[in-house]
Amino acid sequence: MSSTDLLHHGVNYEIPAGGSQEPIPILLERLRVEGTKFIRIQWVDMVNNIRSRVVPLAYFAKILKTSRPGVSLVKTTLGLVFITIVEGFGPCGEYLYAVDLSSLRRCPYAPGHASVMGWFEEKTPIAGLELPRALEVDLCPRTILRRVVDNAKRLSGVEFLLGFESEFILLKNTCPIEAVNDHGWSISAALATGTTAAKVLEEIALALEEAGVELQMYHSEAAPGQYEVVTGPLSPLQAVDALIHTRETIYNIASKHGLRATLAPRVYMDNCGTGCHSHFSVHTTSGTPRPSSHTNLNQLEASFLAGVLEHLPELTLLAVPISASYKRMVDGVWSGGTYVCWGTDNKETPIRVCNAQSPSSRNFELKIMDGVANPYLAMAGVLGAGSKGILEGKELKIQDCKDESAASLGSAGRAAKGISDRLPVKWEDARHLFEESAFVESLFGKEFKTKYLAANKLLTEKMTSVFTDEEELKLLVETY
Q: Does the structure show a pLDDT above 70 at 25?
């Protein structure tokens, strides 16, 4: 057996082929046979609240007979923080939230229910624009991600696969904080037969598989009551839809057992935080990429990574959105560190290269994102930055930080590897970089940037004002 045969090659995934839409009469009959009685029409707003309208299947069937199937939603729906309207939004006007039947999934966590995502669209086409642009809403998170992915394929000749690791903590009480157990990372006792935690995790696993979301594994994490569910890669829009379904599954099954599942970034200051690690791989639409000057990276991957790292400081606000998130944005806690760099199998770099020696399964892991971030927006930013790097043929000048953390290298060691920039470690600094970024404005548009900043500011104000530390943490774990 040769040394090449002994290399570890991970599971190989390919870009899924686009399927044809199931005819509506057949779809409705299948839903009836499966016992579906209600459809949850879901969306995710700017501050990462999952919102929904629940309609009976009979009325959903009537909606599907209309010229543009969907429901009317006040335009403020994208600009609400709790019950306060974000600056720039108001009481007037409605969008059509057009259902995307390709996203329809059964909800085993709620027997008799299925869920579907959609697109925010203008009710009346905008004069002077061609379809479909005349209907698109530039604030719609799913539309933004779809546009980035389509442009990457059209302009840069690349497609992506995307998967997620969902970390969460199971709590028995939120004030004072009381976790379901105190077990640590991958400890078998954290999933002891008959315990509430073991029942919750197994129900989550079975529900995801029944819903058609590939489950790769689940295990306990480091902090008290902390667990992780890993789901397989899909094309970006489908992957984020699956992530939203995964979160709903986790929340609801925990609630069924009298627990609160939280994605709060850092519940325990003496232990690890809670993240939402995304894994993404880059695939050319034609030919074979040339090798790069970096071992185990082809030229497309190197340019993609160069583009991401160039703009990561400006995009941090999308991935680490509130002041509480920055309690996790520190060096030494395996959340990606604070220096702009990358590393092979290094959990102290914001971008980690996984399965580096296997071209068929090699992927990048973004470690800094947490569960407060809207994943459609964060992924649009990262994939947009990487696509720009490929389009420009950007050279990756930062060297592989594979042997130790950038923080421990010291200034001379970092300089030798080309590491010169640091990620924002304060919410105020992240907002400033986002606000001043020409790249953010070119990718998302000026209106989006202005309104996102307004929503983000109001959210942090609501989460931090007139609260004791204990009250602030209670609000955080009960909101996310």
A: yes
